[in-house]
Amino acid sequence: MAFSSLFTLLDDIASVLDDVALMTKAATKKTAGVIGDDLALNANQVSGKDIKPERELPIVWAVAKGSLINKVILIPIALLLSIYLPALINPLLMIGGAYLCFEGVEKLLHKFLHKADSNEPQEVVSEADKIKGAVRTDFILSAEIIIIALGVLQGAPTLTKILSLSAIGIGITLFVYGLVGLIVKLDDIGLWMMQKKSALSQSIGKSLLFIMPWFMKSLSVIGTIAMFLVGGGIFTHTVPYIHHVIEGLQLPASLLSIADLVVGIIIGSIACAIILPAMKLFKRK
Length: 285
Description:
mainly alpha, 10 helices, DUF808 domain-containing protein
């Protein structure tokens, strides 16, 4: 009798885990686009000339821990909101999306309006501020990933939702920040390979050292574009009017991302037009 109960329990556990694996796979596929943007954005945020090589991995690790804490906070909130206040999910996502678009436009304004100051010493962002900024941005990206995943998991039992969201949260964090850690150390890997006796290793090492400065510069551009894609994408999918306008344009699938980009720039410009003067006003006071 005891063995029969044990086998029944194990069968139930196996069934739940099987459901979790299937739902996690389906939900992760849906979030793939945001994960790509998340990777580009975070790699850009935790890199820079002002960071000492020996501090690169500790910064990535600190942001990864912050990302896990974000998900520990967000998963229960998302589950509770989906049950008790589902109408609040989209407005909260839109606030986060507007913030990302605002940051993107602010970066562009700083780049193009402060060219005259480019020869002057730039203000160095402290390590703590860099980590806080990256964790704050990760919070918004994590929220979107969790909400998209939750949409796929709709109708699944609560336990399956909890386990699937936890697996997605941990898996994505390990994947994204593992790759970010690899990206920021590629130049060191190139230097190490150049010291090897093998001609192939030396050739690969030289190639990495040649490519990395250009690649790191491109991350700044890719990271800013990712801000608009994620932020604009939230609005194109959650605001019915914008969604219908874009549908009416009958754009091919390959151009839908451009629509997200344009919407992101417009939203960011509106946010900047409101927030930047308000910030100046408060500073004067």
